[in-house]
Amino acid sequence: MKITPKHTLPQEEAESSRSEDLAYLKIFEAADMESTHPNVLKHNGQKSIRATTTQGFLCKSPPISDYPNKPLEARFRIFIDNNTYDDAVIVIIDVIDLDQDKVLRKMALPRKSFPKAQAFTLLTLPFTAPQNTHISLRVYYFGYAYVILDKIALLDPETAVWDGTESPSEPGTGDEHDREAILGAYQVTNLPSQHTGVFHHRGGKAIRATTKEGFLSYGPYVTGYPTKPLDVYFCVYIDNNTADNREILHFDVYDAFQKKLLADRAVTRQQFPVAGQFTLFNLSFTPTTQSKLEFRIFYKGYAYIAANHIIVTDPDKIQLNSPADIPDNIFLPTRPTPRPRPSIPDPPGPQIEPQPGSQPIESATILHLPEMTHDLVTQQGGRNHGGSFNNGLYTPSNRGGIEFIREVDFDKMFEVEFEIEGNIANSHLDEMNGGKVSLLTILQQNGPYYLGLQRMRYEYRGGGILRVILTHNYGSEHGAGFIITVPEISGHYTTLNWGNEPHRFKLQIKGNRCRLLIDNNYTSPWTWSAGGVRGRHRVSFMIGNRIPPMAKQHPITRYRWVKISMP
User: Fold this and answer.
1) 401 and 539 in one domain?
2) What are the helix (H) ranges across 128-267?
3) Is 406 helix (H, G, I), strand (E, B) or coil?
4) CA distances to 300, 307, 361, 468 from 193, in Å
5) Region entry Disordered: which residue ranges (predicted)?
6) Most C-beta atoms within 10 A of its C-beta, which of 85, 157, 177, 183?
7) Are residues 299 and 205 part of one domain?
8) Mean pLDDT for back-to-back runs of 10 residues, the chain (567 residues)
9) What is the phi/psi pair of residue 197, to 5°?
10) What is the 3-state secondary structure (H, E, C) of 361-382?
């Protein structure tokens, strides 16, 4: 990890021997820092993410402990491509106390908070950290814009000066042409698929020869492209280009917002110029300001096909004639690929269209609210039935709660995590008068699946008890699975000793089973319900009430953050 201390004091101060007068400044290169976002690109010491709806940390600084005991500033040098398209939150910058797992200061930055587009902005976050702890400076990418992080600095503003201009890596050096000409670069291995015969191969995804049709890939539901003619290139491979001249693939550009095709193209076997290696096919399209774009590959059958990259370009600045023209520096190595499925031909089957406009469920993150604000909830498509937002916290009101609708795959594990701050009031009241309240409810739309996490009333089994009910017979407890935090059922856990400290909950769910984890000191056994649900379904997630919201069933507590993901 490269850490560069710098001193910028006047000469007379620099000659002082008093340690408290020494300038304090640490600078971290973006390329040297940890990232968790799957689409981070690295170039010229910087890190970037092209416009996507996938969320994750662009950078986290290493732990820092040698800072002075006084007010400090974290400074972030960030580039954005467009600052007028909308006012969606683009990034969140923060300082976290790693030892206490507590955010000391954070700032959500909407698009219009950046004063200039196509330029770096220096953003300042003042804070005071406790002593004898480790802190980290972080940039969380929220989506919807092309963003570059150059450097992060930690300094004492009374003794050090850094305006971000010393030895910067400006756009205009190195990869400027790539950044301006290539607007999107997507690895097919990270995109969702619908065809049941898809497997990972040749650095992307593939389908062995079969008569079954379906989408080899779709998504990524990207926004923010300029409203001008653009090109998209599909990099694909075929095993044989002479056996016949059947239609093998269908490429299209689909606008999930307008629910219409912007461009499409059918490709026959003999239109592949070469077999046994990757080649490019392109489409031209023009998005609107509201477009939510998918670049889709539909498999028609009768050949082994693989696809590894999809590239969106500005045709006025670059044209790609072969895969060799794709710049190497726009991709990072992908995660290891699973072992391919056995080569068993699939029987003929009907074409199944994916649901345009739904979020790709194969992404690791289904929903993430790193803080609870009205703007972030709205941006993520949430509905606030009632409650207040204050300093990044959310408190449900009577008949309140926040509801999100998402599509999940019950054949795969998914997790719902959230953190609340402070004890939950009114446990002494009657069950329907505030004594039993719902922290989280999950309900299948037009289906029987139901899961509820509840804090029970004081008189229930000795008080301080949490309960999870899981059923595939909504409205009845017959055949339901239960987690009840008492020793004889699911192990002991009580809320009776809670104060105002935060508490973290995690529910792990797959099909007809689930388990509950609380903080770092409670893990329930798995519970099962009779029956089950398989495949993909749209479900409602209610934070802070039942579904539909009911009077006096809201927990009087403060929600700090919420995350739904596939581990």
Assistant:
1) yes
2) 176-181
3) strand
4) 14, 12, 10, 33
5) 325-360
6) 183
7) yes
8) 33 34 77 89 84 87 90 92 81 93 90 86 90 92 88 86 54 48 85 89 90 92 89 96 94 92 95 94 93 94 94 91 76 33 29 34 70 88 92 92 92 93 77 84 91 88 89 80 90 86 92 91 89 85 92 90 89
9) -95, 10
10) CCCCEEEEECCCCHHHHHHCCC
Bridging pattern class, strands 527-528 and 260-268 = unpaired
Residue of 343, 317, 12 lying closest to 183 (CA atoms): 317
Instruction: Please state, in angstroms and rounded to a whole number, the distance separating the CA atoms of residues 171 and 148.
Output: 9
What's the pTM value of the predicted model, to 2 decimals?
0.42
Instruction: Name the pairing type of β-strands 102-110 and 230-238.
Output: unpaired
- Using CA atoms, how far apart are residues 448 and 313, in angstroms rounded to an integer? 46
**Statement to judge: residues 314 and 408 lie in one domain:** no
Indicate the number of domains in the chain.
Answer: 3
Same domain, 43 and 100: yes
Element (H, E) at 13: helix 11-14
Distance between first and last Cα of the chain: 28
Q: Is the dihedral of CA 509, 514, 516, 520 positive or negative?
A: negative
Q: Report if residue 304 sits inside a domain.
A: yes
Q: How high is the pLDDT of residue 354? A: 36
Query: Cα separation of 236 and 249, whole Å?
Result: 10
Instruction: Please give the helix or strand (H or E) that residue 231 lies within, else none.
Output: strand 230-238
Residues 224, 297, single domain; the answer is yes
Q: What integer pLDDT is reported at residue 166 of this predicted model?
A: 46
CATH code for position 454: 2.60.120.200
> Which burial class, exposed, middle or buried, applies to 110 when counting CB atoms under 10 A from its CB (0-12, 13-18, 19+)?
middle
**Inter-residue contact 464 to 496 (CB < 8 Å):** yes
pLDDT for 179? 55
**Does 133 reside within a domain?**
yes
- Does 204 share its domain with 274? yes
The structure tokens 């345009």 sit at 356
Same-domain check for residues 37 and 99: yes
Integer CA distances (angstroms), 196 to 192, 278, 348, in order:
12, 23, 12
Torsion sign over Cα 116, 117, 122, 128? positive
**Contact indicator for 291, 223 with CB cutoff of 8 Å:** yes
Residue 67, both tokens:
């800072």
Give the separation between CA 210 and CA 213, rounded to whole angstroms: 8
Instruction: Note whether residue 424 is domain-resident.
Output: yes
- Domain boundary among the residues 134, 169, 204 is at 169
Phi/psi-derived region of residue 368, left when phi > 0, alpha when psi is between -120 and 50, beta in every other case: beta
Handedness of CA 37, 38, 44, 45 (dihedral sign): positive
Residues 417 and 492 in one domain: yes
Report if residue 351 sits inside a domain: no
Helix (H) or strand (E) holding 248: strand 247-255
Q: What would the two tokens of residue 387 be?
A: 């409650």
Domain at 18, CATH number: 2.60.120.260
pLDDT of res. 476: 75
Amino acid at 348: P
Domain of residue 242 covers 183-330
